[in-house]
């Protein structure tokens, strides 16, 4: 592959270009022609491989696919066809896309990567690990999720401490500011607040950070490579430790290219051979400079690799969960190049600032063109994407099928057998990749064990999703089933949730793990993750507010924000060519008599109905109905609470009983109209609540409209 990579990319790619290799052959010597023929043989076979590029804006991706690997480029939306072999998209991938893929197909994202790529999710996941392993996870600056952790954050101010505040889902430095006073922060706004690393390592008096490219090419088990080349991005104003006079100087404190490139000081790279000058340099040139200054770069690199692996450990169970839907023992249908942004402080300690799941592949300088072209090409080689491998996989599947036909039964593998196959596949990958890794370095698996971090994050994940509850329940129900008098199969299973935190987590997990688009025509490009450089929606809304342990967050603020944001979100969504869905779910909420929801008025609802016209057909009707129903219920509650000034506890009891009645009725109704049971139910909010059984004492049902920036969703129940 080496000589092929030398094909020069100058930043442009003409999509309509058709190769015609035969034309030039007349003028070439026999030797050259034989050489070319050999090469062409390989290329021609690859021509039968289809690379779907319908959802990428980057010329460098198409260039590498077509000019280096000779893939046939396909422009039909990848969700609409299934004959591609390899798909490169600039957006997040849904679990359903993966579920439909065949084992020879590969895609450049893992479903569930939002858990690293969204600042608030990353913060939440790493904070949890930090709690358990404070010293081992100290590479992430102390972080607070606002507004839910506002009170704790407030306590941190004083003694000239500086904090950096970042919108939860933004990129390119947008909306970021530094502060030393709590008064400058709106306590209701959503931000990720972080201790500001005030003594960064400087080069030429300038702050800089590193964009490191990390390839995750397996999640079960983790398989991680670090690219040996990357970018160093410099600020354009000489650095001075933060003081009240310079907090606003973004070109001093922020190293984003998007911010600094407009500064007249910015020196652009103009030659790929001069990677060590200007405000965007190669990572290797910065390491060389540090080595020349006798800095311990090897230690720095070891620390960086360690932090990368630990970061993945914190979300491995989430990725694995999303991956279980494919029977892919080779663990290689998804891969993803992530941009890790690393800041080094003056004592050469690296800090993780953020992880980008769609690092920019913009190639506006020769430096970018060179690095990114090679990065993508090395990735394709490492992922073993070629016709030979495809055919082998297909043949293997055929053999398995034939065996089944001959023996007349489906060979069900035991866990041990599966483990063994996985190990064999891993060994094969080790052999292949060690010979074909280009400029990548395998950093995990490695000699050091990360098991304790992986185990802890699994424990956290199970607590969060309620998997541990379900497991315990299963055990219990097995015990119950062993007692013959307790056979009551017609009764729906009850999930007993005693602690409010467990209850909350369970609800949250049902939402997080059960949202899928329903039909293939209605899939879209991924939901909540915003691509670098892409415009973000105004007031990006999470599906669920942050919550931790026993802190039960009141929903009022959240709901108010949701409703008020519908309009903006609709407009944004329409602009993006996507559809906004509104889903009415039911949540339990602690009865606290906060019934004064005067902000949700009929008038308010009317004003949000008109943008819903952007939703098509029958979906529109359902969306409007959901919003209306929500408002009506809310208004009814308001009326009830103000008119009946009854004893508080009596009122609660009454409501609780009414709710229970409603549950039973809706259960009957639902069962009548859905003879197959609960599988595939959608927009049946009461069904959702039913599975959670009756509200525990002290809780009542509360409706929460979920705004989902993707197509229709359904719930899947076991
Ligand atoms: P964005 O996704 O908008 O680029 P980042 O988290 O990468 O957000 O922050 C933007 C820039 O702000 C970084 O490139 C870095 O220069 C600076 N920065 C971010 N967090 C910190 C921090 N905790 N301490 C010091 N500088 C920071």
Short description:
The protein has about 725 residues and is an alpha+beta fold.
Which helices and strands, and how do they pair?
Blueprint (H helix, E strand, L loop, with lengths): L1 H4 L24 H18 L2 E3 L6 H10 L3 E3 L11 E2 L7 H6 L5 E2 L6 H4 L1 H14 L10 E4 L3 H6 L7 E5 L9 E3 L11 E5 L6 E2 L2 E14 L2 E6 L3 E4 L15 H4 L3 H4 L19 E3 H10 L4 H17 L2 H8 L12 E9 L5 E7 L9 H17 L4 H21 L7 H21 L4 E5 L6 H15 L1 H16 L17 H15 L1 E2 L38 H20 L5 E10 L11 H8 L7 H27 L4 H26 L11 H7 L7 E10 L4 E2 L4
The structure holds adenosine-5'-diphosphate.
Describe this structure in words.
One of its GO terms (biological process) is microtubule cytoskeleton organization. Keywords: ATP-binding, Ligase, Nucleotide-binding. GO terms for molecular function: ATP binding; tubulin binding; tubulin-glutamic acid ligase activity. With 718 residues, the protein is of the alpha+beta class. Helices cover 42% and strands 14% of the residues. The chain contains 23 helices and 20 strands. The strands form 5 sheets. Strands 9, 10, 11, 12, 13, 14, 15 and 16 form an 8-stranded antiparallel β-sheet that branches. Strand 1, helix 3 (59-68) and strand 2 (72-74) form a beta-alpha-beta unit. The chain is globular, with a radius of gyration of 28 Å. Mean pLDDT is 71; it is low at 1-5, 17-26, 483-567, 577-608, 614-618, 630-649 and 658-718. It binds adenosine-5'-diphosphate.
């Amino acid at each position: 592959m080496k000589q092929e990579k030398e094909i020069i990319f100058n930043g442009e790619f003409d999509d309509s270009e058709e190769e015609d290799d035969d034309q030039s052959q007349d003028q070439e010597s026999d030797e050259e022609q034989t050489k070319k023929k050999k090469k062409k043989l390989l290329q021609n076979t690859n021509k039968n491989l289809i690379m779907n590029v319908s959802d990428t804006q980057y010329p460098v991706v198409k260039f590498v696919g077509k000019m280096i690997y000779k893939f046939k480029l396909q422009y039909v939306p990848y969700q609409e066809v299934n004959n591609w072999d390899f798909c490169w998209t600039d957006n997040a991938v849904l679990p359903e896309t993966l579920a439909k893929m065949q084992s020879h197909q590969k895609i450049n994202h893992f479903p569930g990567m939002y858990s690293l790529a969204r600042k608030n999710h990353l913060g939440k996941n790493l904070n949890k690990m930090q709690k358990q392993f404070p010293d081992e996870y100290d590479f992430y600056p102390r972080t607070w999720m606002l507004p839910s952790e506002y009170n704790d954050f407030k306590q941190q101010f004083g003694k000239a401490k500086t904090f950096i505040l970042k919108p939860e889902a933004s990129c390119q430095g947008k909306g970021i500011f530094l502060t030393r006073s709590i008064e400058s922060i709106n306590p209701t706004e959503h931000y990720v607040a972080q201790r500001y690393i005030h003594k960064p390592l400087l080069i030429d008096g300038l702050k800089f950070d590193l964009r490191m490219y990390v390839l995750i090419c397996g999640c079960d088990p983790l398989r991680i490579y670090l690219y040996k080349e990357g970018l160093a991005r410099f600020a354009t104003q000489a650095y001075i430790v933060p003081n009240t006079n310079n907090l606003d100087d973004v070109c001093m404190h922020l190293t984003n290219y998007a911010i600094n490139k407009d500064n007249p000081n910015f020196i652009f790279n103009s030659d790929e051979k001069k990677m060590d000058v200007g405000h965007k340099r190669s990572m290797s040139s910065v390491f060389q400079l540090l080595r020349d200054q006798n800095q311990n770069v090897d230690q720095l690199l070891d620390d960086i690799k360690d932090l990368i692996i630990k970061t993945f450990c914190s979300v491995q169970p989430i990725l694995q969960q999303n991956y279980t839907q494919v029977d892919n023992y080779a663990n290689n249908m998804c891969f993803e190049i992530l941009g890790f942004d690393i800041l080094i402080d003056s004592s050469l300690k690296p800090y993780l600032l953020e992880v980008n799941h769609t690092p920019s592949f913009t190639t506006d300088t020769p430096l970018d063109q060179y690095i990114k072209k090679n990065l993508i090409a090395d990735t394709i080689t490492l992922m073993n994407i070629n016709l030979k491998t495809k055919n082998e996989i297909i043949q293997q599947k055929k053999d398995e099928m034939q065996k089944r036909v001959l023996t007349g039964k489906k060979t069900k593998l035991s866990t041990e057998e599966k483990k063994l196959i996985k190990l064999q596949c891993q060994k094969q990958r080790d052999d292949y990749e060690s010979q074909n890794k280009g400029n990548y370095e395998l950093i995990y698996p490695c000699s050091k064990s990360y098991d304790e971090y992986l185990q802890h994050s699994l424990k956290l994940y199970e607590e969060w999703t309620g998997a541990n509850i379900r497991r315990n329940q299963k055990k219990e129900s097995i015990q119950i089933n062993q007692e013959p008098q307790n056979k009551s199969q017609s009764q729906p299973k009850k999930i007993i949730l005693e602690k409010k935190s467990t209850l909350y987590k369970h609800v949250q997990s049902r939402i997080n793990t059960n949202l899928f688009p329903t039909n293939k025509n209605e899939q879209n490009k991924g939901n909540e993750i915003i691509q670098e450089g892409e415009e973000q929606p105004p007031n990006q809304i999470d599906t669920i507010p942050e919550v931790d342990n026993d802190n039960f967050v009141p929903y009022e603020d959240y709901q108010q924000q949701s409703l008020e944001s519908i309009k903006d979100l609709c407009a944004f969504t329409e602009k993006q060519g996507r559809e906004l869905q509104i889903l009415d779910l039911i949540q339990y909420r602690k009865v606290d008599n906060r019934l004064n929801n005067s902000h949700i008025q009929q008038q308010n609802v009317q004003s949000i109905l008109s943008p819903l016209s952007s939703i098509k057909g029958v979906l529109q009707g359902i969306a409007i109905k959901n919003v209306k129903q929500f408002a009506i219920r809310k208004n009814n509650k308001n009326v009830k609470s103000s008119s009946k000034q009854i004893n508080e506890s009596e009122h609660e009891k009454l409501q609780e009983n009414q709710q229970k009645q409603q549950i039973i009725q809706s259960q009957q109704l639902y069962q009548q109209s859905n003879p197959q049971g609960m599988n595939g139910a959608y927009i049946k909010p009461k069904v959702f609540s039913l599975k959670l059984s009756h509200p525990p004492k002290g809780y009542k049902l509360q409706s929460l409209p979920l705004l989902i920036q993707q197509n229709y969703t359904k719930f899947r129940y076991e």
